[in-house]
Every structure is written in structure tokens, then in C-alpha cells.
Design goal:
Blueprint: H1 2-18, E1 27-34, H2 40-48, E2 53-58, E3 63-69, H3 73-82, E4 86-91, E5 94-96, H4 111-118, H5 136-140, H6 143-146, E6 156-161, E7 175-180, H7 196-205, E8 221-226, E9 233-235, H8 236-248, E10 253-256, H9 265-276, E11 280-284, E12 302-307, E13 323-328, E14 332-335, E15 341-344, H10 347-363, H11 369-379, E16 380-381, H12 388-391, E17 395-396
Parallel strand pairs: 6-8, 6-10, 7-8, 10-11, 11-12, 12-13
Antiparallel strand pairs: 1-3, 1-4, 2-3, 5-9, 14-15, 16-17
């Protein structure tokens, strides 16, 4: 018996040398980036030496995420600093990414009430009975002017956010798939549980069927990339993994209506890698009224500030040389999780207007990041009285996107037929 106990103890000691187990108590996450010459398996093994759990791999940036007991963080950092295979390590913070302003109390409303409330923002010609309603922001960027030529068919947009309520009438049939990054055991559980991603999605590609609200690109397809929880929180590594998932699935446009006050080198590297592989990321500038948040502040993204219906810059809109465009972001009516509609304000509401415009441009043949940016640049017009720090190149107008002969599959459009 003593011999068996000795053998068991020896076995457990050997196992402990190769893997550590998280004790009860607080833990911290580190994003461990390995040198390019190191395999991902070896990178995981290196991180495992200092942590108790390798949470996930981030092949996009050649890194792994490791969980470390708080009591051992200093020792772990010292070992990582000395590890020959490790290029850098960064603290992986949990961030509240959503900084939306309070809603304006529209709540869940029926279609008759919807029609009454937005009638003053409809185009002068109005909408045929039973046709889609046009929110003021969609009208302001001139989306209906582009619809005879393209409504975004063939474009795919990843909504990196809180998920999407695909059962909403305006979004039914618009969502082609998705992933829940927060729950690896249930990756298909990407339904929205906060509401933010649903609202954003309606502005990008609401179908407007049965008299509902039309988005900027009503024939584009959406992908729900759930990286934020019901409180709008997520770790840097969750957002990075969302970018990686979208890129790996061949999606060329991503909307990120989220922002952090502080940047993260791994997040920046993910944005750079995604761009290098052909994905354009459109991001909210932020609602602090101060400097642009992250990832919008990175030069590889397209950062969007917010305007109101009088073409004034919203007082909450973050600003600076990083801003690329301005778009409607005050009192934006769009899909409400669970049904109906809600009015929200924020650069989170401005960004999806540009994502929808990018989908229209993609459908006219601007299928690379350089071509997309050039198409948006060429379609933008400055607003009198605004400086570039608030408007970038100005307001993008859909009617200026593309050229004659770029019919995107011969789409035709009549508002009454967009069901």
C-alpha cells in the first residue's frame, strides 16, 4: 500500500510540473504573444507554464490567452519576460464597451404609431402604402438614391456587438449566421440579450418588409458576432476573437459600434491583421465628447462621428484627426430587441450608417479595403461649419457611390416592393 501511495504521489508531482490548476480565488488574464517562429502548440505550452488555464488561442495575432491566479501574476510576468519564445504579454482587461446615451422612450411600438412618428422624416415623395419606412438617418445619407442601382446584394457585414435578434420582422432572413464568442460550449447562441446589436443591425440592413424600417443596405447579409454580454462588457480577447472569426469566415466588412478608453496592442495587431487580409473595420468614434476611443483611433479602421438632423455635430461625439466620416447619430429609430422600435443616440448609431454605405459600395464592385475607402471618400461631402476633427471627410452620400454600369446584379427597386 505504501508503494502504491508513493507511486501515486510521484505521478501527481509529475503532472503538476506540466500543468497548473487554478486555486479558488481571483484570477487575471494575460494575452501572451509569441514570436512568429514559434508554433501555436509551443506558444500554448509556454503560456501553460505560468498559468493555470489557457483560455483560447488567437492565431490571428499569434497569441494565446492564459488565466493566472492573482497571487501569482508578478511571478508569471517575470517568467514571461524571460521566456525566449515570448514576444510580449499584455493584461487582458474586461471593458464596458458600450457608451450609448439614454433612449428616447419609443419602446416597442406598432407600425401605425411608427408611421405617425417618422412621417416628417420621410422623403418628400413619401412611401407607397405598405412600403418600407425610411428613418431620417437613412434618408440623410441618401440611401434611397442608390437603391435603383444597388441595395447591397452580395455584401456581408459582421456586426461585432451583443448579438442580433434575428426574429425581429425587419431582420428576419437578413442574418446569415453568427457565433457566440463568450460561450465556446454554445457558439450558436448568438441571439442578442442586450439590444444594442439588434438596433445597429436594423440601421445597416433592415429589410423594411410589411411597412417596417429600411436600413441603408436592405439586401446585404448580416452575421452576428457576439463578443459582449447583456451588460455590454467583454474582454479584449473576446473582441479580438470576434474579429478573427469574421475574418476566417471571409466577411469583408465589420461594424464595431463599441469603444474602449484605452487601447490594447493585441487589439491593434488584430485590426492590422484583419485589414491585411482584406477586411474593412468601421468603428464608432466614441461618446465622450473628447478624444476618439479604441479601436476607432487606430488608423487601420474607419472612425465615424455623429451628427443630428440639423447637420450639427452631436455634443457627445468624440473628435480628433482620427475621425474619417460623420453620419447620423442622434434620435436614430431602429429595431428593438424583442420587437418594435426604439430611438437611440450615439456614435454607435452613426457607425452602422457607414457600414451600410460600405455594403452598397461593395455591391458595386469596391471589394477591397482600398477600393471601399476610396469609394466612401469619393462619395463624401463636407458639411458647412464643421471641421475635419468632427466630420473627417464629411457626410457620405449613397447616390455618389459607384458609377454607371455598376448595377450589382441588375437590382431594381421600388419602395413598395422591398418586402
Amino acid at each position: 500500500m505504501n508503494l502504491l501511495r508513493a507511486l501515486l504521489l510521484l505521478s501527481l508531482t509529475a503532472a503538476a510540473a506540466n500543468a497548473q490548476f487554478c486555486p479558488l480565488g481571483e484570477t487575471e488574464r494575460k494575452i501572451v504573444t509569441c514570436k512568429a517562429s514559434v508554433s501555436m502548440d509551443d506558444c500554448r505550452a509556454e503560456a501553460q507554464k505560468v498559468g493555470c488555464t489557457v483560455v483560447r488561442s488567437l492565431e490571428l495575432i499569434h497569441a494565446v490567452v492564459v488565466e493566472i491566479p492573482s497571487s501569482r501574476v508578478f511571478i508569471a510576468e517575470t517568467k514571461l519576460d524571460a521566456a525566449a519564445n515570448v514576444e510580449r504579454h499584455d493584461t487582458d482587461r474586461k471593458v464596458r464597451w458600450l457608451r450609448n446615451l439614454p433612449d428616447n422612450g419609443f419602446g416597442a411600438i406598432d407600425l401605425n404609431e411608427l408611421t405617425r412618428r417618422i412621417k416628417d422624416t420621410l422623403p418628400k415623395a413619401g412611401a407607397p402604402a405598405g412600403g418600407p419606412q425610411i428613418p431620417w438617418g437613412v434618408a440623410r445619407v441618401g440611401a434611397p438614391a442608390a437603391w435603383p442601382r444597388t441595395q447591397g446584394r452580395g455584401a456581408e457585414v459582421a456586426v461585432i456587438d451583443t448579438g442580433i435578434d434575428a426574429s425581429h420582422p425587419d431582420l428576419a432572413g437578413q442574418v446569415a449566421g453568427g457565433v457566440n464568442i463568450l460561450d465556446p460550449k454554445h457558439p450558436d447562441a448568438w441571439t442578442d440579450d442586450e439590444g444594442h446589436g439588434t438596433h445597429v443591425s436594423g440601421t445597416i440592413a433592415g429589410s423594411g418588409r410589411s411597412g417596417g424600417l429600411a436600413g441603408v443596405a436592405p439586401r446585404a447579409k448580416l452575421y452576428a458576432v457576439k463578443v459582449l454580454d447583456k451588460d455590454g462588457n467583454g474582454n479584449y480577447d473576446d473582441v479580438i476573437a470576434g474579429i478573427e472569426w469574421a475574418m476566417n469566415h471571409g466577411i469583408k466588412i465589420a461594424n464595431m459600434s463599441l469603444g474602449a478608453d484605452e487601447g490594447s496592442e493585441p487589439l491593434h495587431r488584430a485590426v492590422q491583421a484583419a485589414l491585411a487580409k482584406g477586411m474593412t473595420i468601421i468603428a464608432a468614434a466614441g461618446n465622450s465628447g473628447g478624444t476618439v476611443g479604441f479601436p476607432g483611433a487606430y488608423p487601420e479602421t474607419i472612425a465615424v462621428g455623429a451628427s443630428d438632423s440639423s447637420d450639427h455635430a452631436a455634443n457627445f461625439s468624440s473628435h480628433g484627426p482620427e475621425v474619417d466620416f460623420i453620419a447620423p447619430g442622434v434620435d436614430i429609430l431602429s429595431a428593438k430587441m424583442g420587437g418594435g422600435y426604439v430611438s437611440l443616440s450615439g456614435t454607435s448609431m452613426a457607425s452602422p450608417h457607414i457600414a451600410g454605405l460600405a455594403a452598397l459600395a461593395y455591391a458595386t464592385g469596391a471589394t477591397t479595403p482600398a477600393a471601399l475607402r476610396a469609394a466612401l471618400d469619393g462619395a463624401a461631402r463636407p458639411i458647412n461649419g464643421l471641421t475635419p476633427d468632427y466630420e473627417g471627410r464629411g457626410m457620405v452620400l449613397a447616390g455618389n457611390i459607384g458609377g454607371r454600369g455598376l448595377n450589382a446584379g441588375g437590382e431594381t427597386f421600388a419602395m413598395a416592393s422591398a418586402r
